[in-house]
Specification:
The structure is a single chain. The protein is of the alpha+beta class. The protein has a 20-stranded antiparallel beta sheet, with helices on both faces. Strands 23-53-52-51 form a four-stranded antiparallel beta sheet. Strands 24-25-26-27 form a four-stranded antiparallel beta sheet, with no helix packed on it. Strand 9 and strand 10 form a beta hairpin. Helix 1 crosses helix 14 and helix 14 runs antiparallel to helix 15. The protein is elongated, with a radius of gyration of 34 Å.
Length: 817
């Protein structure tokens, strides 16, 4: 396992190691050599209580790798002492651990009187007496040695101690840390990263080249919501250890969290105040001779951001000119995104080679400069997400999980790691065994934050490790990009949300200029693409034609009526061709919510109504209109009556029964604007090109209200909310908002969680605006985007997401906190 990955997973490793021991103490000189883990227990009662009542430790209790260890240590449940004792774990076979506990010998130290099924016998080995306890089938061995008593789950370990005879030699680094450890904490952990790695099963192809350090000493503190470990790591100059990369440098304030998006899975930040010193340490660590490159003299931080299962690397500089010139001369192409130039680079391994082992397995394909930081990524979309997040001030340093961790951390770090549950899962999946990954994923780490911090000072690495329940979230009022996704070519339709009937979450559908339809997952992955013959007209509708809860996508292209299933496969017989094309958007009527759908396809004057079996509904008599039909027909229900509404290009509004006969005759001609018909105040409402609102009630009475709107005005209505967009004036329920000059889309109303949202987009200046029903702007809007939005709670967390066109060939999803 690479040392830096060990650092990232230290919270989990130490969480696991802590849970596996119930008690521990001993004087080091009584232990056999080469323990994997040593735990000094200063207060056994408190330590047991802290272990028992911490939610995070309970989460790892079922880890398969800990089951055997915990079962063996259970024999020490009968231990009772107020004096310091130590517990050490030893690997006595592959993935097989036994313990030795050392304590001051006192009466009633080990009391198994309450065990009904027990036996006690004395065994002899080379003149020493070893007592064997069998407690409900669990074996515990004990050996008196001077004033101490040694207890173990293994007879072999006690035999080794007897053979050694005199006190064993203690690692001087471990001894120094042991003597300096706190007496006020319930326990202190001493971990050797090289020998302890076997406690956390790694993938077979992972090897430890250079250890992270020789020993780490960590004082243990826990309450119901938090596990905290503080201590030091020591690494003599003779050891090529990871912490010595930062020897001779001073820590700085970590800026990576200010560039990482708020939805980043994890970040690792490395800082140093003198690149030349770091580079010399790096050469020593890698056992190489290389001239230190002055190109990086201004670099003072290297950051790795884990975003949507991908890496982004940051190089923070206090002077960017030389490095920028170097990159600019080596670019193969460039483009501008939200005012930032993105360079495509030809040297794919340049960053990795320059900053290994801090950066590994990374291709620096793209780069942009944000303030004084160079941001590198393997794909362009990740950079676009970073830029959008940074410019909308929705970075990780505002996340409540990060803020929870920061409250317990120092302001400056040589190394800083912060992660949520998904980040821990990601790192574990890349580095740990399949069995361990399964254990981690099955555990409940929801609403937990993981953090590791190392501060280099005078040759010591000071550690602070935290696993904590995220503090109660405050209203953040942030709008953060979740992801951007670039398609093969420009978008042809506005992206929209559709429901995944399996997960109950929302996904995104969009079509590009090559008529390829995309289904995109909640985390920005393309699930499938489907080549269509033509452009989708209007919105895609979702239906459940089999009435089994499985949803399909229904729509018209220019010359086809199609229904496709969850996997993108066509649903027979819904691949219906229409000679001559020129179809309007599909209308779907579900009169009484029974899912007995009526699919209405209009082509010129012709009207085709199909049922769930794809057959023409013969009882519907409105087969052809006197003139061409405009847009998709609409269905409204007022009281217990259904109304089907058609606009015709002869300026006639047709309002029909279910069977197709006229229900209301509208005699007045209306020069329709390019807006739909809505039901507002139980009246069929439509505007004309002169900006007049025409409303027809269910008795056929028409009322006209002149709003003096321009011919290209936008209009949208719900049952009680009326919205107009006229030039740069937005009117919501009569309340007007003057926006910046621009070219605006039609407005759109969303009603979600008992709240009304009104959206409109300045297409010219690529700004998305969002307001409430009182015409008050939603905080942190406008945001960047170039189409009308769709709005939904994509992941069912009661927080909304919006999707919109980003660049011509990309889309963007924002989360509203």
């Amino acid at each position: 396992m690479r040392p830096k990955v060990l650092f990232c997973l230290l919270p989990l490793i130490l969480l696991s190691c802590t849970k596996e021991v119930k008690t521990k103490d001993s004087l080091l000189e009584h232990l056999p050599p080469d323990p994997s883990l040593v735990i000094k227990i200063s207060n056994l009662t408190n330590f047991k209580s802290e272990l028992k009542n911490n939610a995070s430790l309970q989460s790892v209790e079922r880890f398969s790798g800990l089951q055997e260890i915990m079962a063996r240590v259970k024999g020490l449940d009968h231990l009772n002492t107020e004096q310091t004792c130590i517990l050490a774990l030893y690997e006595v076979g592959k993935d097989n651990f036994d313990y030795v506990l050392a304590a001051k010998n006192e009466s009633r130290l080990f009391n198994a009187d309450s065990v009904a099924n027990k036996t006690v016998e004395t065994l002899s080995y080379e003149g020493a007496n070893i007592t064997k306890y069998s407690l409900d089938g669990l074996e515990v061995f004990s050996l008196n040695k001077n004033k101490e008593i040694l207890m173990s789950s293994s007879m072999m370990l006690l035999e080794n101690i007897v053979r050694l005879g005199h006190n064993t030699l203690v690692d001087p680094v471990l001894e120094k840390l042991y003597q300096a450890s706190s007496k006020n904490k319930s326990a202190t952990l001493f971990i050797n990263p090289a020998s302890n790695a076997t406690l956390l099963p790694v993938k077979e192809n992972n090897e430890i080249a250079n250890p992270f350090s020789s020993w780490i000493s960590l004082d243990f503190t826990a309450n119901s919501d938090e596990v905290n470990l503080n201590g030091v790591a020591m690494a003599p100059d003779s050891i090529k250890s990871f912490v010595n990369l930062f020897k001779g440098t001073s820590p700085l304030s970590n800026k990576t969290p200010t560039y990482a998006p708020i939805n980043a899975q994890a970040i690792v930040s490395y800082t140093f105040d003198d690149y030349q010193v770091f580079a010399k340490n790096q050469n020593n660590y890698l056992d190489r001779v290389r001239k230190v490159d002055s190109l990086f003299n201004t670099i003072e931080e290297v950051g790795v951001i884990y975003l949507n299962n991908q890496k982004v690397v940051l190089l923070k500089s206090f002077g960017t000119e030389s490095l920028y010139d170097y990159l600019d001369q080596r670019k193969t192409a460039s483009q501008t995104y939200q005012g930032n130039e993105i360079l495509e680079l030809q040297e794919k391994r340049w960053v990795e080679q320059s900053f290994t082992p801090l950066v590994q397995n990374f291709e620096s394909n793209f780069c942009t400069l944000l303030d004084n930081s160079f941001i590198f990524s393997e794909n362009k979309e990740a950079l676009q997400t970073i830029v959008s997040s940074y410019k909308s001030s929705s970075s990780l340093d505002k996340d409540q999980g990060y803020l929870t961790a920061k409250a317990s951390l120092a302001n400056e770090s040589s190394i800083l790691f912060v992660s949520d549950e998904t980040g821990i899962n990601l790192l574990a999946e890349r580095e740990l065994s399949t069995e361990m990954v399964s254990d981690i994923k099955d555990s409940d780490f929801k609403d937990q934050v993981f953090a590791s911090q190392m501060v280099m000072d005078n040759g010591f690495g000071h550690f602070n490790i935290l696993v904590s329940k995220i503090a109660k979230r405050q209203e953040q009022n942030t709008v953060s990009p979740l992801f951007t996704l670039e398609l093969n070519t420009d978008l042809a339709t506005d992206p929209q949300f559709v429901k995944n009937h399996r997960t109950k979450k929302q996904e995104v559908v969009v079509q590009d200029q090559n008529n390829v339809l995309y289904l995109i997952s909640t985390d920005g992955k393309i699930l499938w693409t489907k080549q269509l013959d033509g452009r989708i007209q209007g919105d895609i509708q979702q239906v459940d034609i089999y009435k089994n809860g499985k949803l399909q996508l229904a729509f018209c292209t220019n010359d086809k009526f199609l229904i496709i299933d969850r996997n993108g496969d066509e649903v027979a017989p819904f691949n219906i061709d229409f000679d001559g094309g020129n179809l309007n958007p599909l209308a779907v009527f579900d009169y009484d919510g029974s899912r007995n759908y009526r699919f209405v396809v209009t082509q010129g004057k012709k009207v085709f109504m199909y049922n769930n079996q794809g057959k023409i509904v013969n009882g519907f008599t409105f087969k052809e209109a006197p003139s061409n039909i405009l847009g998709a027909p609409k269905h409204f229900r007022v009281g217990n009556k259904d109304y089907l509404v058609f606009k015709q290009d002869n300026n006639t509004l047709r309002i029909l029964h279910r069977v197709g006969s006229d229900r209301i005759k509208v005699t007045e001609k209306i020069d329709f604007s390019n807006n739909e018909v809505f039901l507002y105040k139980n009246k069929f409402s439509v505007t004309n090109k002169a900006g007049v609102l025409h409303q027809i009630d269910t008795n056929g009475k028409l009322v006209a209200t002149n709003f003096n709107l321009n011919a290209d005005h936008g209009y949208y209505a719900t049952s009680n909310t009326l919205v107009f967009m006229d030039d740069n004036i937005l009117s919501i329920k009569g309340k007007k908002v003057e926006l910046e000059l621009g070219v605006y889309s039609k407005p759109k109303i969303f009603y979600i969680y008992d709240k009304i949202y009104v959206a409109v987009t300045d297409i010219q200046n690529q700004q998305i605006y969002l307001f409430d029903s009182q015409a008050k702007p939603i905080p942190n809007f406008p945001v960047y985007g170039s189409s009308l939005i769709d709005l939904s709670d994509m992941d069912n967390d009661k927080k909304l997401e919006l999707v919109a066109k980003d660049q011509d060939n990309s889309l963007i999803v924002y989360k509203i906190n």
